[in-house]
Amino acid sequence: MPHQQHPHRDAAPPTSILPADMISVEEARERILARFAPLEATRVPLDAALGLVIAEDIHAGFDIPPLANTAMDGYAVRAEDTAGAAPGTPRTLRVTGYLAAGHLPEGEVGPGEALRIMTGAPMPPGADAVVPFEETDEQDLGPWQANPRGTVRIDVAAAIGANVRAAGEDVRSGELVLPRGTVIGPAQVGVLASLGDAEAPVIRRPRVAILSTGDELLRPGEPRAPGKIYDANAFSLAAQVRAWGGEPHVLEIARDTVEALTARIHEGLRDADMLVTSAGVSRGDFDVVKEVLQREGEVGFWTVRMRPGKPLAFGLFRGVDGRPVPHLGLPGNPVSAMLAFELFGRAAIFTMLGKPQLWPRPVVRGVTLDRIESTDLRRFFARARVSEEGGRYVARLTGPQGSGVLTSMAFANAYAICPEGVPAIEAGAECDLMLVDRELPAEPPPPTR
Ligand code: AMP
Ligand code: MG
């Protein structure tokens, strides 16, 4: 079944993966996205549906609310019995009982009668309006349980339908409530719940296998060792996958041997919709990553006109059942890996999730307070903290901009972009700001060095 669902991946490629040198960010992304399409539908429990896309039209099986009911705590009455009522000239009606939400009325409200009724309780037959407690002597009478009364004073003339919610006011039986393609946010989850199904038909989450490569890597928790560093990429990349709605599967670190890499890649291909590796794709690298990647699939090694993160590999591998699995080979430097995954992996994940229109980040114009220097005319993505000051966006760089300085990312909520071919943006000048984390506070972090 998954096979028929992926005809695009077997179709003739719009562009080959292989011949590409010095391409732009947009060209690279276009080539990558040509290999992705929405995944197949599945059903998930409502509490796992947030952020997913509805895979089939959702129709209502019944009216919501199912019965006409009261919008207020009050007295259900016949409107005509309240004609002329006002604070000086009240009407008095006979109270026949009490009805809470979730219970059904037993008798009719006859002429001269009223039923004490709580918000959400169904309207009793005979009644056509509700007089809220505030328009009666309810306040003077005290709690019903302590003092059930035989009569109520009505201080207002109620119009027919006053404070009554009609059956089907929210949703009518048979109506198209949420069309397929709708992204499920908190309100949509609520609407789905109100329709009574415990599950929703959605496009499933992509599984993204994440592989760190390198003899120098340790997993956090392992003891420190000379010459070794901790594997940051597996964690930041897995977090990006999860933040964007995918399901990360972090593989064991692959050492720089053909055997280890091959074994890890095969493990990753077992159930992944996409394989992401980091490190070993630079030009003139001693790593065996390139060799193994080429042996395992069709792989292009690209030079993208961006900094950080120039080297990028993109390939198509075969999963165990012959299913094509796209592979994204990111640079090893932690900042480069995260930026490249931001620019290419995010779009791929959103495409697989069925919401390809939603991956672009907001880009705003703003003023940079620091000079942004591009040493080699590639498009430079400087890590920055953006805030709104005096009605405009203002950006400050978050410190040293080396591609290994991961803390510069941790303090950033945006990339300040120096375009291709531009040597520098001077302090005080305008530039594009790509906002990636609106939830980071605008306060700069305390100085650390
Ligand atoms: P490479 O692409 O293999 O030349 O690696 C570039 C740099 O990134 C080297 O300094 C590596 O040690 C570093 N690096 C590679 N993988 C990771 C990782 N998973 N976590 C942190 N740093 C890494
Ligand atoms: Mg390496």
SSE blueprint and pairings:
Elements: H1 7-10, H2 25-33, E1 41-45, E2 58-59, E3 69-70, E4 74-77, E5 91-99, E6 113-117, E7 129-132, H3 138-141, E8 151-154, E9 164-165, E10 176-178, H4 186-194, E11 199-203, E12 207-212, E13 217-218, E14 229-230, H5 233-243, E15 247-250, H6 258-269, E16 274-278, H7 289-296, E17 297-303, E18 306-307, E19 311-318, E20 324-330, H8 334-352, E21 363-368, E22 372-373, E23 379-389, E24 392-397, H9 407-410, E25 414-418, E26 424-425, E27 430-435
Parallel strand pairs: 5-6, 12-15, 12-16, 13-14, 16-20, 18-23, 21-24
Antiparallel strand pairs: 1-11, 2-10, 3-9, 4-6, 4-7, 5-8, 17-19, 19-20, 21-27, 22-26, 23-24, 23-25, 25-27
This protein binds adenosine monophosphate and magnesium ion.
Residues 212, 214, 216-217, 229, 231-234, 278-280, 282, 285, 287, 331-334 line the site of adenosine monophosphate (AMP).
Ligand names = adenosine monophosphate, magnesium ion
Please give the count of helices: 9
Mean pLDDT: 91
Assigned CATH class of the largest domain:
Alpha Beta
Sheet with most strands: strand arrangement: 15-12-16-20-19-17
Number of strands: 27
By helix and strand content, what is the structural category? Answer: alpha/beta
Helix share bin: 10-25%
Q: Superfamily at the CATH H level of the largest domain?
A: MoaB/Mog-like domain
**Number of structural units classed as domains:** 4
Question: What is the CATH topology of the largest domain?
Answer: Molybdenum Cofactor Biosythetic Enzyme, Chain A
Rg over CA atoms? 31 Å
Q: Please mark out the parts with pLDDT under 50 across 5 or more consecutive residues, or reply none.
A: 1-14
- Describe the sheet with the most strands: 6 strands, mixed
- CATH architectural designation of the largest domain: 3-Layer(aba) Sandwich
Distance between the termini: 57 Å
β content, as a range? 25-35%
- How would you sum up the global shape? elongated
